[in-house]
Amino acid sequence: MEYIGEELATHSWTNLEDRMQFELDGVVEKEIKQAYNVENLELCMSCMDYTTLKVTDTDKSVQNFVADLLKKLKKNSLKEVAAVCVFPNFASIVREGLKGSNIQTAVVAGSFPFSQTFTEIKLDECKMAIAAGAQEVDVVVTVGDILEKNYEKVYQELKLIREVCREVRLKVILETGELKDVESIFNASLIAAYAGADFIKTSTGKVPVNATPESVYIMCEAIKQYYATSGRRVGLKVAGGVSKAQNAVRYLTIVNHILGKEWLSPHYFRIGASQLMDDLTKEIKALENN
Ligand SMILES: O=C[C@H](O)COP(=O)(O)O
C-alpha cells in the first residue's frame, strides 16, 4: 500500500500565498485584458461543461435542456461545448440526446454534493451512472476529512472510486470554498492527483463560496508540482458561479499563466456552468461585430 503522507511531504506550498496575491493583482490582471478576444471566448465555450443540477430537474426538462443546447449552438454557429453535466439518473437521457455530436455525457455522482454516505453507495452510484451512459464522472471529496487531515482515508476512497471509473474521465471536486486555507486546498489537490483523478474541480456550486481566482491559483500550482514529479497532466475544472464571459477568461488566463497553453483545451481545462452560455454567446457576437 502506498501512503499519501509520504507523497505530500515531497511538495511545498510555502510562500505560495504571498506570490499568489502579488501575481493575481499584477501580471495576471494585465494578461486578462490581452486575453479577452474571440479566440479565447470560443475556447471557453469549447471547454464548457454545460450544467443543470437542480432539484426540479426531470426526464423531460433534461431532454429539453439538451435539445435547447443543440439548437443554440446551431443557431449561433457556435463550437460544441465539452460536455453536458447532470445528476446521474439522467445519464441515459443526455447520452441519447447528444447522439451524433462529440459532446460528452458527464454526471455528478458519489453522493453529490456532500459526499456524505457509505463508500459502497458512492461506488455503486458511479457504476450505475457509467452503465447508463456516463462518459465523465464528477465526485466530491469528503471535505471534513481534509479539514481534519485524515488524508489517507480520503486517498484510499478516491482510489476505489478511480478503480470503478477506470474507463471514464474522473473529476474530483474539492469544494474549495469550504476548505478555505492554502494548505487544505493544496493538499486536497495533490491527494486527488495521486489517487488518479483526470481533473480536479473547484466546487459543486452548492455552497456559499465557489470558484475563486485564489483557489484556482493554488490548484494550478499543485497540478504544476504534480506534473513535475509524475509527468502526468491533471486537468482543472472551474465550477460554481461562473456566469460572465469576463470571469471565464480570468480563469483561463490564470491556468495559462501557471500551467501554460498545453492545458488550454477540453482535455485539461473545463468550466462547469449553468448560467454562462448566454453571456459568452453575446460577447462572442459583440467582439465579432467590432
Ligand atoms: O459543476 C458545476 C456547477 O454545479 C455549476 O454551478 P453553477 O450552477 O453555479 O454554474
TrEMBL record:
GO terms for molecular function: deoxyribose-phosphate aldolase activity. It is an enzyme of class 4 (lyase). InterPro entries: Aldolase_TIM (IPR013785), DeoC (IPR011343), DeoC/FbaB/LacD_aldolase (IPR002915). It catalyses: 2-deoxy-D-ribose 5-phosphate = D-glyceraldehyde 3-phosphate + acetaldehyde. This is Deoxyribose-phosphate aldolase. One of its GO terms (cellular component) is cytoplasm. One of its GO terms (biological process) is carbohydrate catabolic process. Belongs to the DeoC/FbaB aldolase family. DeoC type 2 subfamily. Keywords: Lyase, Schiff base. PANTHER family: DEOXYRIBOSE-PHOSPHATE ALDOLASE (PTHR10889). The lineage of its organism: Bacteria, Pseudomonadati, Bacteroidota, Bacteroidia, Bacteroidales. Pathway: Carbohydrate degradation; 2-deoxy-D-ribose 1-phosphate degradation; D-glyceraldehyde 3-phosphate and acetaldehyde from 2-deoxy-alpha-D-ribose 1-phosphate: step 2/2. Its EC number is 4.1.2.4. Pfam families: DeoC (PF01791).
